[in-house]
Design brief:
alpha/beta, Aspartate Aminotransferase, domain 1, 13 helices, 14 strands
Amino acid sequence: MQRIPFFNYPYLFKSKENDFLKIFKDVGYRGAFILQKDLLEFEENLAKFAGTKYAIGLANGTDAIWLALMAAGLEKGDEVIIASHTYIATAGAVHFAGGVPVPADCGTDHMIDPESVRKLITPKTKAILPTQVNGRCCNMDALLAIAKENDLFILEDAAQGLGAKYKGQGVGSFDIGGTISFYPAKNLGSFGDAGGFVTNNERIYNKIMLLRDHGRNDDGIFEMWGFNSRLDNLQAAFLNFKIGYYHEEIVKRRKIAQMYQENLGHIKELHLPPAPNEDSDYFDVYQNYEIEAEKRDALKKYLSDNGIGTLIQWNGQPVHSIKSLGFSGEGLPYTEQMFKKCLMIPMNTSLTNKEVKYVCDVIIKFYK
């Protein structure tokens, strides 16, 4: 029996240990710990990769959403439509920015459903905050049309989506921009908490640059009240190195997704994510491989018994189900049914072809 963890955290460091040790020593010997050239270089390379004019390194992905909403002018009581299929941080950032998160249903690809968004708009709605979940970009044409019709802005929660595209346009480049997480398990992961924001909007960029550093401008003058949400320079140095081969990481994830499709696509009890080349409008980077499975809990146990780690995303809690935070727990039928079946199987670049095949073989054996 093979042992395949859901995510191999030690691999992150061990895979290029000598390179990471050199970076650590270089930064340490220079005493370059806060807002140094490593961060500036990473921000330049991040913007280049994302296809945006600007990029900002921030302390984490949650701060990125929060500060971006503040920079966009969200006011107390403004409603922001979010995907219910997202991490609580998305809703939390809206809440702490003074807004009211309003969860929307998802579709068969597990992305926010534009028609659900349309039905939730009220006179208090100020923005749409779609999550580019699992490394796939939402149907941005539909969302942008809804936003234009109703005078709303769109902020992308692209925590899981760096590199994903819709009709050739990268996440983070739509409307006011996108927030990114560099949490270790993300496609482009650091060795701690880290986040970023990419945008083509100069006004939003300048505002967040002030907000992340106590409201202080480049001359050291305090222009406004701000926070401490700077991306640690050491993490920026690691990320700047890793973004240099990020394209290779995406290629490998897409190959793994294709292997899953070829081996599991015939199983009628499974609903798989869209295949890598299923629709030319979408370019997915497969942060996660989230399936829907009949007999989900039995399958999860069977995989565990055979040494394979799995995860139910958000601990099985879509945002609208969290009644302790004031949500109703009802009214989003696809999301509610999907969370009875959803399961994430291993998807990361530590996986070998042999390991992917083993995961597939065990799943096939279960359904036989």
